[in-house]
Amino acid sequence: VSLGIVSSILLKQKQLAQQTLIDRFLTFQRILSPDFRFSTRLPLPQHIDKILIYAERKEAIKVTHNGMIELLERGEKTFFPFMRLLTNFFEGYWIVTSYLASQTFSRRDESSLIGDIRRYGKKMKILGKIHQMESISPDLLSNALTSLVEQEILKTEDSMRARGKRRLNRGKHFSGIHTLQETLEETLATAL
Prior knowledge:
- The protein is mainly α.
- It has helices spanning 2-12, 18-32, 44-57, 73-84, 87-101, 110-126, 138-150, 158-161, 177-191; strands spanning 15-17, 61-63, 68-71, 107-109, 154-156, 167-170.
- The protein contains nine helices and six strands, in the order αβααββααβααβαβα.
- The strands form two sheets. The chain has a three-stranded antiparallel sheet.
């Protein structure tokens, strides 16, 4: 998963500073945390270093003396398959953010919201905006909503938790939905 995220970032931006890579990695790690467990054996900079060493050995990147990472011609061929492993997750999260950014809602039961998002996703598939039907699986969409709750873009109303259902509302960082949507859209533009 980590290599897939690094691949997505490097394929989008052909040259960047190592700290920028780490910052962007953290963004995707936060987004995808409901779907994946990330290694905590090493501090993140060391974890990224191991991936970069692997990529250098594959002659996919060059790390300059001032810490800039440059994608080499061979890098696209090396990184593309790893990025594609995460495409359905990026598409699913994009569908959720795109749908929510286009709606005006105050409170919604999660199950009915997922149904509406799935219908929206099917339209996006017909329009060619997404390519994988796995992107609109109920579990993936539910995890995307959980990620948005963790980031306080959405919030869960406590009164419904006791009954085993989630009612979602706009969170205090809902305005960040557009930035997240754009980040996912740019990543998908590289992947497709």
